Amino acid sequence: WARRLLLQEEFDRGVPMPDGVSRPTHRRVEPACLPKSLSQAFVCNVTAQNVPRPGGYFDVVSCANVLDRVDNPEALVNDLMYLVRPGGLLVISSPLHFDENYTSRGRWISDVREVLEPACWNIDNRQVDVRYELWQNRRRIISYLSQVVGAVKKPALPAF
Length: 160
Description:
Blueprint: H1 2-6, E1 14-17, E2 25-28, E3 58-64, H2 73-83, E4 84-94, E5 121-123, E6 128-137, E7 140-153
Parallel strand pairs: 3-4
Antiparallel strand pairs: 1-2, 4-7, 5-7, 6-7
């Protein structure tokens, strides 16, 4: 979908929308609502653990509303932290609406900041919540708040 939207590859303008666990529904998007195309983009369909770049490569890494839908949220955050360069920004948002179909109860967290090591990150302690409303089907709108946390990676301590 990133290739289709960012590079404007041919497609029927049907964009997946959240619906049931097993399959998304699609919503038709008018051409005027599509983002401006880029001349080039490198898009990889890989897990955070397998991004084809070295650690500390990215200035900004974001993870939007995924943390509560993976088996091990802390491992995902560790993989994301590895990718950020010192002085770079990590932005994580999540409604923290965990479900045992995705994440075992012992791995649930109640605050994104729990999984960011303060010795390595300057964490913005302002509480920011972003409201999302999704039209799930004809008569049902789902509304939730996602906690949004921004953290700047501290420079590595010199080895002695």
